[in-house]
Amino acid sequence: MFTGIIAERGVIDAVAPTGDSVRVVVRAPKAVSKARHGDSIAVSGVCLTVVESTADTFTADVMGQTLQMSNPAQWTAGAAVNIESAMAMGDQLGGHIVQGHVDGTARVVSVTPSGDWTVIRFALDPAHAPLIVDKGSLTVDGVSLTVSTVGDDWCEVSLIPETLVATTLGQLIPGQLVNIETDILARHVARLAHFDKGMTS
């Protein structure tokens, strides 16, 4: 489990196809310094398992389903990524509960500087839109964010300068894709409502 508080910005050093999956080498010195074989590290919101490591890189396998669900530009050599190590028991929950299982992608519609913050609007997939609420939590490329405004097929977040500098979100431009993970509580409620409707109809 993760919290969406990014510890460092990493880089995809290498990508090697292996059948319908890929093996990636990620440069992330801070995360690697305390990682062991089998540990989980979130890479721009995608939970990966460490299979090998060096002093400043780790290697992980990305399966086909994950490649289909996530931003394809993320899995290219040289891509900047957000890094978070898995939460340990007793750690502070600084963001919100993040599983590292992305629901899919959203497209950046606009990036608008506004005073001391920047407003980013995302176009949402119809399957994701009902799960995102005003002032609710949303994970974007692994970053825990609060939704500032929401519409039927879009949402906005307002980012402070620290978030823009400490994560890859400061480099977003219109048209780019980002990984999103909706709130796990919202997904459970939607699933329960689906079955409840079926039993009462």
From TrEMBL:
InterPro entries cross-referenced by the UniProt entry: ATP_synth_asu-like_sf, Lumazine-bd, Lumazine-bd_dom, Riboflavin_synthase-like_b-brl
Pfam families hit by this protein: Lum_binding (PF00677)
Alphabetized PROSITE patterns for the sequence: LUMAZINE_BIND
Keyword presence, Repeat: yes
Enzyme superclass (EC): transferase
Purpose: Catalyzes the dismutation of two molecules of 6,7-dimethyl-8-ribityllumazine, resulting in the formation of riboflavin and 5-amino-6-(D-ribitylamino)uracil.
Listed name of the protein: Riboflavin synthase
Organism (species): freshwater metagenome
